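Q: Large polyvalent protein-associated domain-containing protein, please. Structure only.
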Amino acid sequence: MIDEKRSETLLLERTLQRLFGETSYHVERSPCRGKFRGHNDYSIVFGSGRKLFIGQDKQNYLSGLRKQVGLIQHFRDHQAENTEKIKAALAAHDTPFCDAAVDISPYPGLNELIVYGVVVLTHQSGIKLMYRETNMHYFLVGGDRGWYSLDECMAHLPKDACGERAYCKELPLKSPPPELGKRPQRRKGGPVR
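A: Structure for Large polyvalent protein-associated domain-containing protein:
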């Protein structure tokens, strides 16, 4: 029984590692403070430094792993389908982003993998906007059984991308690498030998 649970735990941990595109991981246990003092939080820390919270206490670890694998697996399974749905919904609006290229991917910018499902809009001019919002994330990882439907999420996305940008962040354009040409070092008396 213990060996079965341990092997399932290892399988689920490695599945999460693969689905997030990581090469290594370790499990981190940290003590809780305040109201939950005496308990421990369990997280998986990947080789890149990104951390995914699994759950509180060891007895909840396996069920937390199952839940997280289910969420990221749903995200990956429906990634192309949701991209097309979002493209169609954007095309229905008269905004500068109605013909933008849409990409849905895990957000690589933070080390805490809490809200990792983001929508990246690429305008024809090359401007990239990343829309990172909790309701959209839960739709992407949970489908229609999540908090909000796609229609409710899409009612907010065009307004935010074209207006206040409370949840949209402009991604930097890829700049050319800096030139490597350096001047030769010189000492006061002449060139360095």
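A: Brief note, in case it's useful. The two ends are 70 Å apart (CA to CA).
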